Amino acid sequence: MGRIAEEQRDFVAAQEWYLKSVVISEKHGDLHDAAATYHQLGTIALEQHNLEAASAWYLKSLDIKEKHHDMHGAAKTYHQLGIIAQERGDFETAREWCMKSLAISERQGNSYDAAGTYHHLGMIAAAERNFGAAREWYLKSLAIKEKHHDMHGAASTYYELGKVALDQQDFDTAQEWYLKSLAVWERNGNLHGCAANYSALGFLAAQKGNMEDCGKWFTRSVRIFLDAGDRDSADIAIQQLLFSYNQMSSENKQTIRAIWRAADLGEFPTGST
């Protein structure tokens, strides 16, 4: 039940189910199940951006896994601790956790988990603005995902490769990666993934001077986030739109405002000039 709630992004309910589960596991001395549930509680806390709680749950899980030589499980928790370190801006520690995870996955021939860690190492490198290394890690991840027909995972990596190309001012390549990612999400009906790509394509269109496409992509993104009740993501998309908008000519601003009105999104956001 916890996993179902987690997949539905109902993190409060997921946490309640996991806590009920862990009480039973602890009562019966089932440390294996307890460690697995601690890990899931860490993931719930991470989704809620509670890094302290996430770290505490993951370390509690890891202590059991290492004591019982569950290295497959430990690798998963090392990976998550790497994500927390990255969120804190501690890229060196993040890399260390990820490399510990990767060493186990590669030794065990677990290419699926290795692909996930390659992807995250790419994110760490990109955060450090080492775009060459980021691209290499992403492509290693992508090769495995495509080989195993993991298109959900591939779409995430296409998206990150688009960000790398954008940071390198290679707009055409960035657009190719974003559109590949978008095609997967649209085919699979993943609206959240679609909206993220719409925002990216909107920003890219502004960089290329295509203001009409900029407005259309951003308004589609905002509409999806608002319809899903994800106000935080909608606000991020709006701020990205405003960043581009505030650098436009008066004529282009009129175009963006007209597109916004046509999308029936109410008043154009404040903070614009």
Based on helices, strands and strand pairing, what is the structural class?
mainly alpha
| Tally of contiguous helical segments | 14
Kindly state the number of beta strands: 0
Mind summarizing the main beta sheet?
none
Sheet-strand content, in percent, reads: under 5%
Q: Please, what is the oligomeric state?
A: single chain
| Shape category | globular
Helix proportion of residues, in percent?
A: over 70%
Mean pLDDT: 92
Give the low-pLDDT segments. none
Radius of gyration: 21 Å
Written as H for each helix and E for each strand, in order along the chain, the element string is HHHHHHHHHHHHHH
Termini separation (Å)? 48 Å
Summarize the structure in short.
This protein is mainly alpha-helical and 273 residues long. Helices cover 81% and strands 0% of the residues.
Could you characterize what this model shows?
It is a single chain. This protein is mostly helical and 273 residues long. It has 14 helices and no strands. The protein has a domain at 195-273. Helices cover 81% and strands 0% of the residues.
Detail the topology: elements first, then pairings.
Layout: H1 2-7, H2 11-27, H3 31-47, H4 51-67, H5 71-87, H6 91-107, H7 111-127, H8 131-147, H9 151-167, H10 171-188, H11 191-207, H12 211-227, H13 231-245, H14 250-262
Helix pairs in contact: 2-3, 3-4, 3-5, 4-5, 5-6, 5-7, 6-7, 7-8, 7-9, 8-9, 9-10, 9-11, 10-11, 11-12, 11-13, 12-13, 12-14
